[in-house]
Amino acid sequence: MAQLTNSVGDGAYYVCSVLYFSRIVGLSATQIGGALTLGWALGAVAGVPVGHLADRRGPRGIAMLMSVATGAAVGSFLFVRSYPAFLVAVCVYTCCQCGLAAARQALLAGLVEPARRTETRAYLQSTVNAGLALGAALGGIVLQIDTEASYLAALAVDAVSFGLAALVLRRLAVLPGRGGPAGRRGEPSLSVLRDRPYALVSLLNMIMLLYMPLLSVVLPLWIVERTEAPGWTVSALLVLNTVSVVLFQVRMAARVTGLRSASRAIRHSGAVMLLACVCFALSAAGTSAWSAGLALLVAAAVQVVGEMLLGSGSWEIGFALAPADKQGQYQGFYGAGTAVARLIGPLLVTALVLSWGTLGWLTLGALFLAAGTAMGPAVRWATATRTITPRDDTEAPSDHRPEARR
Q1: Strand runs (DSSP E) across 243-333, as ranges?
Q2: d(CA 2, CA 9)
Q3: Which of 139, 287, 355, 385 is spaced 20 to 30 Å from 226 by Cα?
Q4: Whole-structure pTM value
Q5: Can you give the residue range of the structural domain that contains 270?
Q6: DSSP classification of residue 170
Q7: Integer angstrom CA distances of residue 333 from 102, 172, 339
């Protein structure tokens, strides 16, 4: 319920925010882009210390605090009328968002037994997509009304949604923090920063996450500049993606039962993403709107399969390789890949695809394939360095007690 509440508000925010900042506040595209770039860069760094705080003080309280702080940051957008104020508000918003993500992941790890974390995360992902769809529909109404009051109302809904989510989180069990100095004597507080195998796994996951700007940034430009497909095809692709995740993500995640199957899922994801990139490239060869549109729909259908495979494998790996008492800081580090993908993905992928055309798509697909293939050896290296016993595909679910991970 907390995720659903957040995502409905976020759906409206994502649809309306850029137009609000440009048309109502009066900021230029360069100013908005620069602020978001700096904000997500800071957010990528903020997740680790906030996650560490969740480990120390308990994840539920920190998740509630970050949810309220994020809502306050969104609420401040209602009063921003200058670029310096906007820059500060964006940086606070992105840092709180990344911190909230780390704390909620730590909360999930503490409340859910290891054998069910990937399944639970899949349910949450389906819920998020359903909420984003509802919020985007609300944002569409706001765009149709196109008044300052309507934009302010959309932002207010998002701000309130974070406050409501914090109230929902109060219904969850209180998990005690570790308190005191973290870790064993002589061990650094933020030990994740010295965990090279986990850093490599996180890097490969970040590369795979470069698919994120495809539907929202790259494809709209690709469709307009390189294909004969009608403009509304973008909406059709977004609907297809959202509905597919809502309906099939949980089923896809059920196939992941440990680190070996998780590595296999990501390896398959890399191959599927390569195929999707080939299909996207072929859409430019269509001589009619219908042939181009059909190629795009096929490509989007293939891409969402790769996306769901990646999510299923990535969640299992991120949780299983993290020490049980340091899930917060480890999830903050692992989740930084999302912020980095949001930071560099739009510019990198857009330049690659629009500048190189078919060759750009093939290069992007090859990058996905290489990262997906490399994940298996990286996970084996990380497993060999663990002092805990990650969930293994051959183990029975009854063996996955939290004590077994210490």
Answers
A1: none
A2: 11
A3: 139
A4: 0.87
A5: 194-393
A6: T
A7: 8, 24, 10
